[in-house]
Amino acid sequence: MAEAPVEINLSPGTQYIVVDCGGGTIDITVHDVLEGGQLKELHKASGNDKGGRRVDRKFVQCMREFFCDGLWEEYETDFPSEAQAFMEDFICFRQADHAKVQQLDFYEKFKSKSYSAKLEISEKKMESFFRETLVHVTDSLSEILNKHSDIKYILLVGGLSSSHILRRHVRREFSDQAKVLCPKNPQEAILKGAVMFGRDPSVIRTRKSAFTYGVSMYKTFDPSLHKSEKQYINKEGVIWCRDIFSKLVGINEDVEWNSTREFTFFPSESDQQNMGFSFYRTERETVMYVDDWGVEGPVAECVVDMPDTAKGTNREVKLEVFFGSTEIKAKATDLESKSTVSVIVDFIAS
After folding, report:
1. How far apart are CA 159 and CA 190, in angstroms?
2. Which of 27, 205, 325, 349 could be stapled to 38 by a disulfide with Cβ–Cβ 3.0 to 4.6 Å?
3. CA-based angle 191:48:144, to the nearest 5?
4. Which has more pLDDT, 193 or 261?
């Protein structure tokens, strides 16, 4: 059933939710419309596995239970092309607009016997395949709406949004709190949005950092704070603590498009002729060391030359961190020699 045309008011101050229901994940973003039509990201949640493939796995589980004694597994092994075609039909089937009972063509031959069949799936059974996805969407939207009371629209996009089961559920649960909308071709909406964003990435002026990002560094050793195994003594007898996670930006922190932050580092050895930067990320707000639990990396590395050692450890290396639309670009500069090196880190990877 086609969606009726709806007039949307995106004047400054309007807040809306985008629920991107893809094959792998359900990504939910909250935007606030700024003056000039730019957007501020108020909330970003992703990284789950509750998208369309979760629905598909529930369907396959049902097939395995229905065809007992390993028959379904044997079918997948002996007739992989037919099994793949059958699953592709199911993907179209689960996104069908509406029906009480749906029919799905089943395989044509098995164990040297040729026949055709149709599999009937009731609406209730189809809804059971969506259950985990619907629970996740409900919980996520409820949490967001409790935090952001001025949400005006909930926009459903992505391939799974074609399903009347998903659309109907979201409308039933949340239409009293916001207007629920779904474009005629929700999958195409993602592609069009990507093209528009590619042409003008400044449209999203402020993003939420998906992770806490940092670099590994040395810090003066403090026995009351640092682990003894992290102790490092340099050639001059100075005691350092190694593997310190030096934070560049925090998770969920607002980051302006095209903004730059500067950090200063010094060598740990007087005769040190280069300085390495290893970049790490974590979903934790605060960590002490780069090898703490939940820390990933290094996700990027670079080394800047420091050929002039005349000033010993009193040599400054400036690290400039530039936040673009989808990536972080870091530039390290040895202020004595003006030697520079740059590296790029994915900013919105999930």
Report:
1. 9
2. 205
3. 85
4. 261
Pairing between strand 239-249 and 179-181?
unpaired
Q: Does the pLDDT at position 311 exceed 90?
A: yes
Radius of gyration, CA atoms only, the chain: 27
Residue 130, helix vs strand vs coil? helix
Phi, psi for 296 (deg, rounded to 5)? -105, 145
Residue with tokens 């629209």: 153
Distance in angstroms between the alpha carbons of the first and the last residue of the chain: 34
Domain borders along the chain are 212-346
What residues contact residue 294 under an 8 Å CB cut-off, 6+ apart?
A: 282, 283, 284, 287
- Residue 39 token pair: 């957007």
Please give the model's pTM, rounded to 2 decimal places: 0.76
Cα–Cα distance, 157 to 185 (Å, whole number): 8
pLDDT grade for 144, boundaries at 50, 70 and 90: very high
Q: Which amino acid type is present at position 73?
A: E
Tokens read off for 29: 């973003």
Q: Say how far apart CA 236 and CA 330 lie, in whole Å.
A: 31
In this structure, CATH architecture of domain 212-346 = Sandwich (2.60)
Task: Tell me the pLDDT tens digit for each residue of 236-262.
Answer: 999 999 999 999 999 999 998 889 999
